[in-house]
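Q: Hi! Curious about what DNA or RNA helicase of superfamily II looks like structurally. Here's the sequence.
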Amino acid sequence: MTITLDPSRCPLCGLSNTCTHADPATASQPCWCFSLAVEPLALQRIPSALLNRACLCPRCAQNLPAAAAGSRPN
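A: Let's find out. The predicted structure is below.
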């Protein structure tokens, strides 16, 4: 199974991860994740093929249910 990755999308919910480092226009700015603790359970939910390849969105990083259904990478 091949997993398609968009570094601007959360690997859990498929919504925008708002990562400043994934966008060349904002790559020099600090990311939201520098000031938010990422829940260990959220990290455990990331498929192994996507680990360290794309950032979580703020909602998934806090291990909260998705606000709207996104399309998780397949």
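A: A fun detail: The CA atoms of residues 19 and 34 lie 10 Å apart.
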